[in-house]
């Protein structure tokens, strides 16, 4: 965030709030398409839980948070 403030007047967090099921489905789809990945599903689950418990906050230094959701 501090590096961003050096280059921009405003640092905006773009939070893509996507369900865990959608994240896992997209990950599995990439693997089926031959995209090599070593990211275990457990990591996706852990990150999802961390974001659910601690969503992005302006206290982290962001000037603005834009939340994008999937339908």
Question: Top keywords for this entry?
Answer:
single chain; 71 residues; alpha+beta; two-stranded parallel sheet; 3 helices; 45% helix; elongated
Brief overview, please?
By secondary structure, the protein is α+β, with helices and mostly antiparallel strands.
How are the strands of the largest sheet arranged?
1-2
From the alpha-carbon coordinates, what is the Rg to the nearest angstrom? 15 Å
Unreliable residue stretches: none
Biggest sheet: strands, sense, closure?
2 strands, parallel
Helix content: 40-55%
Strand content: 15-25%
Structural class of the helix and strand makeup? alpha+beta
Number of beta-strand segments: 2
Number of helices: 3
Mean pLDDT: 91
- The helix-strand sequence is HEHHE
Net shape:
elongated
Amino- and carboxy-terminal Cα gap: 29 Å
Could you characterize the architecture of this molecule?
The protein has 71 residues and is of the alpha+beta class. The protein has 3 helices and 2 strands, in the order αβααβ. Strands 1-2 form a two-stranded parallel ribbon. Helix 2 packs antiparallel against helix 3. The radius of gyration is 15 Å and the shape is elongated. It starts with a helix and ends with a strand. The relative contact order is 0.28.
């Amino acid at each position: 965030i501090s590096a961003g403030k050096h280059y921009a007047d405003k640092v905006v967090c773009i939070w893509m709030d996507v369900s865990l099921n959608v994240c896992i489905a997209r990950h599995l789809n990439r693997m089926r398409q031959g995209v090599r990945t070593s990211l275990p599903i457990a990591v996706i689950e852990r990150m999802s839980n961390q974001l659910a418990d601690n969503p992005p906050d302006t206290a982290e230094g962001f000037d603005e948070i834009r939340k994008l959701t999937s339908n």
